[in-house]
Transketolase (Clostridium weizhouense), 278 residues
Amino acid sequence: MDKLELQKTAVEIRKGIISSVHSAKAGHPGGSLSAADIFTYLYFEEMNIDPQKPKYENRDRFVLSKGHTAPALYATLAERGYFPVEDLLTLRHIGSYLQGHPDMKHIPGVDMSSGSLGQGLSAAVGMALAGKMKKKDYHVYCLCGDGEIQEGQIWEAAMFAGDRKLDNLCVIIDNNGLQIDGKVEDVCSPYPIDQKFESFNFHVININGNDFNEIKKAFDEAKETKGRPTAIIAHTIKGCGISFMENNIGWHGKAPNDEEYKVAMKELKKAGEALCQK
């Protein structure tokens, strides 16, 4: 898929995020939107996966450590063909399989249940180690939040991954600079994130996480890196793609009302139409 098609797909995923959170009247749009381009590249270009065989043994694995941004994962899985796009509107509804956090027992394409911050990377490290022990060729990708890496368990997992030289593991940090209580640097600064991961024997790449050229280059470099895991520090815009949500901490964990929904969808429709003119 070329860059233009990736951009078009990312717009559709952002539509799915907004539609599902609006329908649920709850959820986390800000961090879902910031990571939408990462999700798009992973599921439509990078990972070896098959929606028709979601449990295929040699598939690449993905763990959403910052599980509250499930709307982005669900919108991506739906767009990729794991389940109907229409089901996104059942997010968080009673009886829906699309819960507020990813559930591997009920949602096709979800490799790990998550939601408790800090725990996902440990699961991803375990998957990567299992791949090495079984001499499998699959890769494991784990998306963490920049606020989430304030959790100590993240660094215990990172220490283990670096020590075991798990070069089949790629950690992506969605560094949008904001968490529920404010700026990450003000709450409990994780900076310098790159130097911290380097000290745990990670190969580190800093990128603009909303630019597909840089995203592609980073994942290509990660695949070529041998002897140690990779951490991609993706500098992103919280709420990316919706003008009134961008860099606005208020949109960390609330749903748009009907009027805000209309404005957001109008912006996304316009963005999609502009891409179609290229």
